Every structure is written in structure tokens, then in C-alpha cells.
Amino acid sequence: MIILSDLIQILSREYIRYAFIVGFTMSLCAALLGVSLVLKKHSMIGDGLSHVGFGAVAVAACFGWAPLAFAIPIVMLSSFLILWIANKSKVFADSLIALFSTLALAIGYAAIELGQGVNFNVGNYLYGSLLGVSLTEVIISLCVMFIVITLYIILYNRIFSVTFDSTFSKSTGTNVTLINVIISILTSLTVVIGMKVMGALLITSLIIFPTLSARLIFKKFKLVTIFSALIGILSFVIGLIASCIITNLPIGSSIVFVSFIVFILCFLISKIKYRR
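Above: the chain sequence. Below: its structure as C-alpha cells.
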């Protein structure tokens, strides 16, 4: 009841409502997409794409371009390149992610330094901020959530198959490449849009923590998916409330703290469960 009353009071402010909608939708999307990414050991692609997103946003600010309109295609292209190079060469995907991450951060930092006087708050994009979420970003986040949920329901069996055995999926006629591309596109959108609230350095927590926590308690893919989504949403809501109540606590850090506490609780529950 305390959380609900606090949430109602907090949402009375428009900028908080905008941040809540974007954060809520992106938490749900990240948790759903994170199930496949984490179980395939590709979870760090979210971290790499968030760094690319930061670099793209910094370049856009330097030249006075629209951040989202520039960052989204750049991050999508980067995800395609990581997948394509990993499949066509002997370079491992995690090495490519590290390569793209460092290059993107270098480009972003150079753009900020070279564009002195540009109105660009580094902290807001690195660590997240409740301020500055626009109505356009709210609408885009709602559209992305609708697309993610719809495709996840339609392609559920194929995502399940590709997650655990891509070789077998190919033999049964599943277009594994297409499924991976769809997941990459949706992850790119989620990372770029969620970066405004969570920050480039912390957005990966929305992808990793919910799945890890749910996986400790549940073994079935469907249950892991459902509870991962619930944990992601719960962590965001509690983190948002804590950030609004505690002065100067960044929302991104708050959500990570809550996510980690939930992970520890799930770990303890799993130990008690299996001991019995």
C-alpha cells in the first residue's frame, strides 16, 4: 500500500509520468528479450549496443541532429555488423562487442570534446535521468512494447528453439538468422530508448538481472520468461520510487540496486527450495 500511494503521488508530475511509461515499457521489453540473450550467452550485446547508442547520441548533439533519429539506425547497423562478422569470421562475438563498445565510447567522447559549447549533459545519457523524456519518446516506447510483445507471442516456439539449439532449429526449417535479426533489432530499439531513463552504462541491467533472478527459481522457459518480465517491471517501479524519494539518487543506480537485491533474494530462495 505504501508503494502504491507513493507511486500515485509521484505520477502526479508530468515529467515523472513520461519517464515512468518509457521505463516501464523498456523494462518489460528488455526482460523479455533478455531471456533469449542471457540463455544464449549473448547478454553483453546489450552493453555493447548501449555504448554505441551513447556515441551516436553524442555525435548527433555535436551536429545538432535529432538524437533518436540518428542513434536508432546506427545501433541497428552495429548489431547487424556484430552478427554478420561473428558468423563470417573467426572473431568471437564478445570480442566484437568489446571492439564496438570502446570505439563508440571513443567517438562519443571525441564528439563531446570537439563540440565544445554543445548542450549535451553527459551524465543524463551515461547514468540516466528522469528529466527530458519527451512525448515522442513515450509514443515510440509504447509502439516498441506492442511490437515486442506481439512478435514474442507469435514467434515464441521459434525463439525457444533457437535459444537452446540453433542447429536443430535450422534442420527443422526455422530461419535462425531471421530470428536473431529480429531480436537484434528489438534489442537495439529497447537500448536506445531506455538509455534516456537508465543511462548507457546501466541499461544492460534491465536485460541481465531479471533473467538471472528468474532462472534461479524456475527451470521452465515459459516460467522464466513470465517471471523475468515481472521482476524487470517490479525492479523499475521500486527503483523509480526510491529515486524520487531519496534526494540526488540517480534513477539508473536505484534500479540496479533494487535489481541486485531481488537477485540476492532469488538466490536465497533457490537455496532453500533445493535444500528441501
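Residues 151 and 182 are 9 Å apart (CA to CA).
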